[in-house]
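Re: beginner question about structure tokens

> Can someone show what the tokenized structure looks like for a real chain? I only ever see the sequence side.

Sure, here's an example I had lying around. Input first:
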Amino acid sequence: MSTKGFTFKGGIHPPHNKKQTQSMPIENAVEPKYVVIPLSQHIGAPCEPLVVAGDKVKVGQKIGESKAFVSAPVHSSVSGTVKRIEQHQTTGGAKVNSIVIESDGLLEVHESVKPKGNVEDLSKEEVLAIIKDAGLTGMGGAGFPTHVKLSPPKDKVIDTIIVNGAECEPFLTADHRIMLEKPEDVLMGAKAVMKAVGVDKCYIAIEKNKPDAIEVMQKIVKDADGIEVAPLETKYPQGDEKRIINAITGREVPSGGLPMDVGCVVDNVGTIATIGNVFRTGMPVIQRVTTITGSAIKNPKNLYIRIGTLFSDIIEQCGGFSEEPGKIINGGPMMGIAQYTTDVPAIKGTSGILILNKKDATLQEPSNCIRCGKCVSACPVNLQPFLLSRLSIIKQFDEAEKNYAADCIECGSCSFICPAKRPLVDTIRIAKKEVLAKRRKAVK
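And the corresponding structure tokens:
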């Protein structure tokens, strides 16, 4: 493949702000004294608990599961005692049923945790079952159950797998470090996904501002049939799955469509590396790499944290706040969700914890739209953000639907580029929710 970078129409170039952690190796986080493991960390049906208060559990033991197809089981990240099952605040803003486990400090591994063998020796169905049982979900933040994504309907013919290593979100470097430090897991995970879907073509997509990751991954895949690295131009939101498909293949996912509609499956590189780890060690999803960074954290780090560890414990391990924080975000500054408390657990989709000081967190006061059209030029979905925002403010949601509000990917490019500092993405998000709620009601 050419070294020329692939890209897409629109997008923006926000400051990277990755220097704090891009050269910092992944550290194993200190084991927490207790974890809070939500039974819903994914899109789809929440899990039902398989344990009760007083039960002893081990690392890797399945503690929650649902019979629904669109769901993913959860596992204990520590060994110890189930103290209670309660409604607990999560990073998404809602309180969900969660299992609180007090660690015994032994990290005793459950008997079911065993290496899964060579991917080449397993059937497609066996690979899918292993991925499902391990609780894999999209670890880039979306949280879609991986086994569902890898099980397209028979009329959807998949010919291309894309491993998303773009990591275009400012500040975050977890995926970058995974590619540098765990390339063998990425390769094994890619082979497993190719086997599960039955394809022989896979691209590992990496933005060109990570030349060291491109070099490492090119070396690791040079003898792997059907797998190659696709360098991407550095631009936000390059990591959006529809943008990355268009950049690499030239295909356009239709309005309201999915990657499978154009023969593609896209998985975040963190998800892929975790799949590789599952096959190599047998350990289900109990940990993930997370970037802790920002202007108000004392010691920024890339940490390998246990699912269910509270933000407060993670921040403390990074030396605490360097000054009074103005905002704490689960994820990155463009698409992350601000938190009002640190008493929330890290989940499978917690790619970053961003702590900004008051100066960096302060938004400028918006003024009237000046009709400059910059938001239209920046929108990677070819929408008219200024119009959708106005329709949302005056509650003309039917008109917003006619203007494709549901296609907004909420990347925030429009708000970032707006010289009037209008809260475009926030207002469009409201319209999008109204449109989708109306559609769900019509289906019922």
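Each token stands for a local structural state, so reading them left to right follows the chain. The mean pLDDT is 95.
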